[in-house]
Every structure is written in C-alpha cells, then in structure tokens.
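User: quick one - fold this with coenzyme A bound?
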Amino acid sequence: MTEKVTLWQRIKEDILCVFDRDPAARNVFEIITTYPGVQAVQWHRLSHWLWLHNFKWLARFLSTLTRWMTGIEIHPAVKIGRRFFIDHGMGVVIGETAEIGDDCTLYHGVTLGGTSWKEGKRHPTLANNVVVGAGAKVLGPICVHDGARIGSNAVVVKEVAAGETVVGVPARVVRTKLSEDEKQQQQLAQSVGFDAYGTSNETLDPVASAIHGLIEHIHALDKRVEAMAETIQRLGGELPPEDSIPEIDQCELQQDQSDNNS
Ligand SMILES: CC(C)(COP(=O)(O)OP(=O)(O)OC[C@H]1O[C@@H](n2cnc3c(N)ncnc32)[C@H](O)[C@@H]1OP(=O)(O)O)[C@@H](O)C(=O)NCCC(=O)NCCS
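Assistant: Sure. Structure tokens for the protein plus coenzyme A:
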C-alpha cells in the first residue's frame, strides 16, 4: 500500500533532503530562496496538479515561467517521487513521459529525453535512489534501476541495472552492483562507523587499509561461526540465546590494555 503523504510533508521533505545531498546548504531560508532546483520542483508539483486536473495550457505556461526563472524545464506531465533534488539546475530538461522515483538526484545539464517523435512512452524512467551526474543525457524509454549512478557527461541509451555505475559515450558499466558478501561487509563497516564504500582496494592510506583488512577478516569469521552454529544445531546441540552473551565492558577492556602495557 502506498503511504499517504500530505502536500506540506512533501514540500518539507523536498527541502530537508538538500541538507543530505549538498554540504554547502546552510539553512532552510537559504535553500528556499537560492536553490533553483528546489524552486523548480515545487512549481512542478503545482503545474503537475494543474495538468492532471485538465488545466493543460495553464500547466504548460507555469512550467515555461519556471524555466525562465530557474533554467530547468520539466514537462508538467512528468511524475516525480519524493525527495527529488536538482542541484544547480541550469540546463536540465525532463521530457513528457519521463518518470522519476523517490530520492533521486540530478545535476545541472541533465536531459531525460526521447529518441523518437512518436507519441507514447519515449522518455526514461528513473527508479529510486538514482544519481545522474552533470551534463549526462539519458535517452529513450529505458529504465535506470534502483541505486544506479550515471557519470557526468555520459550518454545512456540502454537500461542500467540496480546499483550499477555507468560512464562515457555511449555509457558503459564501471561498477556493477555489490555482491551479497560485499553488502554484508559494507553493513558491518557502517555499524562500526567506518565507511568502507569510500575505500577502494588501491587505497594508499595504511590505517584505512588495515581497518579494511580487519573488517574482511571479521566478516569471514562471522560466516565461519554461523556455519559452526548451524552444524551444532543440526547435531542436536543448543546455542545460548544472543542476549546471554556477556557484553564487553569498554572501560574494563581499556584498563586491561593499560595493565598489559605497563
Ligand atoms: C560516475 C561516478 C558516480 C563514479 O564514481 P565512482 O563509483 O566512485 O567511480 P570512480 O571514481 O572510481 O571511477 C571509476 C572509473 O570511471 C571513470 N570515470 C568516473 N567518472 C567518469 C565520467 N564522468 N566520465 C568518464 N569516466 C569516468 C574513472 O576515471 C575510473 O576509470 P578507471 O577505472 O579506468 O580508472 C562519478 O565519477 C560521477 O561522475 N559523478 C557525478 C558527479 C557530478 O556530476 N557532480 C557535479 C557536481 S556540481
């Protein structure tokens, strides 16, 4: 079932999501008054409403005015999900039959365009959490699936799978989706406050490399313990409930370490 969201909630989300995606954003007043992308999306929500209620000319006129004011052209028929952010904005063009899911981000100069003059679906669909880099063109009735990223100035003419990163002209895949193992490693790293995603294997930082190695090692150990637990259960043994495992007292641990050092 789709969650019911009030107009006010939508506007609030459109504004607040800017803080997560632009480190330069300082406060709500600044976002409302100086972010053309945020302004264009709010005007689009109104022109889309007019379009759906059959005020077609008024809807198009409003989107033309918005284009004059912001440099962003969004056809009023375009369906846009929640927390959509267009950074900088100038030169963005989004065609009539394009569809955009939740939490998508576009940069300036992006075109979601068609490749044919035939009526019907001729523009792309972006699923959720898609990022389209500055100047990229996504052309035709293709789908860019969840979490995909499109490099700046890429020209995308084929479907992009979930989690993939594509770059170049025509766009080619440079990073495929994470495997289950990599996803688990990433979760483990995030749970200990380390962003392994930003660390490539060729990293030159020895501390980050060491932590990365430790995380991989812990992940391998976790998998072995899980396999052993499964075997014990299969042989009829009982495992202690998880909450009965004593937590390590960090203060005691530090005390032990300093005793060992002295
Ligand atoms: C595509 C993008 C998301 C890739 O990020 P990533 O997953 O961290 O990938 P990397 O930076 O490790 O790059 C992977 C490869 O793609 C190449 N690459 C990255 N971005 C590229 C681009 N836009 N065009 C062509 N090649 C690109 C890199 O050189 C690298 O090639 P190599 O493996 O031969 O060395 C990012 O580069 C990008 O373009 N983001 C858009 C940002 C943007 O538009 N900002 C505007 C701010 S105003």
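One thing worth noting: Residues 88, 107, 133-134, 149, 151-153, 165, 167-168, 174-175 surround coenzyme A (CB under 6 Å).
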